[in-house]
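Exercise 3.2. Students should predict the tertiary structure of the chain below and write it as structure tokens, then compare their answer with the key that follows.

Predict this chain's 3D structure.
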Amino acid sequence: MREVDEGATTSRRRPGFAGAPRLPRQLVDRPRLVRRLDSGAPLTIVRGVGGAGKTVLMAEWARARSVGDRPGQWVSLRRQPSTRLSFWRDVVDAVIDSGIDTDDSPLANLVASFGRSDDPRATLVRAFSRLPEGIHLIIDNYERVDDEDVHLDLLDLLEHCHEVRVTLATRSMAGLDAALLSLRVDTEIVGPEALRFTDEEVAELVRRAGADASPDVVAAVQRATDGLALPVRAAASTLVSEGRILEPRDIRVPDAVVSYIAETVTHFAPDEQVRSFLLKISVPEGVSVALARELTGEEHAEEFLHQAESNGLGLWSSGAEGLFFRFSSVVRSALYGELVARLPEQVPVLRRRYAAWARSHGLAFVALSNAVEAGDLEFASRITLESWAQLLEVHLVEVVGVLQVIPLRAIRHYPLLAMVLGLGYDSLGDNRMRAIELFTLAIAASRVRAGKTDPAERFVLVAGESAAYRLSGRFEQAGKSGENALQIFEELAPADRDELERNAYHLLAHAGVSLLYAGRPDRALEAFRAAYSASMQVPGLRARLRPLSLIAGTLALSGEMVEAREPIARLDRMDWPEGWSDGHPGALYRLAQGFEALERFDPVGAQAHVDAPERYLPGSEHRGAFLLLQALIDIATHRHRAGSVELQVALERGAGAEIPRVIGEWLSALLAVEYLASGRPARAEAVLSQQPADAPAVTLVRALTALLGDDPAEALRLLNGVRQRGWMSRHIEVAHSLVRAAALLRLGNHDLAADITDETVALILDRDLRFEIVFIPDVDREALARNASEHGLTSSVSFFDSVADQRSFLPSVLARTRLTDREATVLHQLVQTGSTAEIASALFVSINTVKSQLRSLYRKLGVASREEALVAAAERGLLEG
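Answer key:
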């Protein structure tokens, strides 16, 4: 054994690894990976694409070593390619230069001995065996080795020299895989997935960059970088830009980093065939072997994908369609950028192929977005026709993002695309004026296109047209289109219905809502029931939620509460996707629940169902229906004065969608009723005068006004003149009958009043519409109960007893404020001035006389000031004429 100058050797030793690179300033400790490098295995391989953090990880581990550990040498291979001789020359030079061994040792002469030795590996083993303390070699850039003998040299060395350890950093396992199959030495492999930064590590790096590591920021960095170390550090460093913190949506990987990643990819794919393959498969987010072949026509697709995976460019993962290969996001970005630059004419072709593949695999949004990017709007329109429901219910936000980039001059020729984009804008509340513009374009285009389409496409166009009319506030036209769409659907042949498959339920729902708000609830229910039947063809329960919700809400609005309970109960038992029950799909389910609670005299429960979709309602087409329910709740809780103010503001504000005429008539009637209950008949009449005189709800309020004014004959005349006009809800029908019975009783017609009372109570019990009893004054209810008892109507008597605690919000009579001529004259002078002297001068009386008349006027109005007097007088109609 040769002599060793231990003192000299020790003096030149230092902690860590000789030749190790400097660590970055913003280093995040990664102990989970450092422990992997400390496993004790003779061979450790750290594999990943350039920028994955291999070098920094090994340098972090090397820094933590102590003087007592075996000597360590860092070797960075710089030759490309690195042959057997050049590889060992680089290793030996590094070891000698760092002082781990001397320049006259067997190791120093290793490269020269290779050429003369009959057994170079034996020479290699002898040379390293004579190192007194052994050695740990870290070899960076090992992918540059293209000589298989080097792989076998290392394995032989590790097998026979137990004091030697080797850690390799490589971008590729090419050549190593076959060598490792021999299982000659234990091997620890730290692969690309392990190297990715965890959310916690990203958060720590972001904090060190001086930014807030919120979950949104961390998620944005991960999306932009796929957890690759270099891009993560670059993205984190750009978070603070020119003194301001970037928003998560603005986080990007700098172009220089993407270019660096692109260069590393070039190393793996110098062959043009492989490189072209990689560029083409960068179009989708991931590829199966079959999709890769479809896009590229490459018969060696599977081999090339496994090669890309072994080179650290991406990973295989399992999905519904089997195994998929996915590039890391930065690698894909680099490849796609090169595809656009080198082969721009191929991009639309590849997009079209990918769209066709996605369409055949049921991936509607992927198909649509790639068809649009390919510029094939005819194909995009066909995809929309086939997958309308999936696009709007599952991918609404993304669909808007894809379609909104199409110029108006182009989209105007494709009514389905214009309709879907308009519906998206309307649902999101982002740009209602743009939505209306798109609906107008879509309607015009669909009319032109209608004569050239088959029945299935015509149904889609007309159903979409009904939605476009409705959401732009043209409810009558919407109803006509809805009826037309329903008739087309009812006449479709089975083959045409099969063509619609998963879309029919969504389109029938649109046609039904148009019919509902055009005052055709009977036909709306037929459309909704057809939609529910069609939804049974769609796997899963999700498609059935909206049709059932619409059925329940329409039945509740129509006063068919007993029938409504069945769909409500079914919806109660179903699992709703997050946000659906309180959003557009579940809106009428909530409405139905609110009406059901109100009929149980549970206004608190009803209010909870109104409040649940509060964020969704302002721009919703169902806003008017919820305002109606809110007004009924206010009446139930005797909030009619405050409720009338809120309802008036809501009606005048004009926020969100327009209110359909049939709902608007009902709302105006309820507002007038609230004014009546507050003792403001003039305001009530002013509201009613803006509505059709023969509207059922308007007639009801006018009849109530006559009844409260002690004019039962007028009330009866109004009610007897009601014709079946439009939508006559059971709610209004019951209230009409109760007021008619009360008017007859006031006129002394006890027998006919008893007959109508008994018929009405039978209807109330059959439809479970008890709440409507609050629409007649308590004095009339008690009179009806006595009359029923006197006529032996036990069912009616029992009903009145059951609701005895539910007091009416209406007074028994309307209190009339009667002013003297002089008080009326003074009141009109108050409009002009508050000065008693000026009033006295105008009326040629003394100031004391004016003061006396003002006191009398204020007492009758129940006020204490001029301002209060004018408000009270206006409410009671005393300023008119």
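Discussion points: The CA atoms of residues 505 and 531 lie 4 Å apart. The beta strands are 43-47, 72-76, 135-140, 164-170, 187-190, 240-241, 244-245, 314-319, 322-327.
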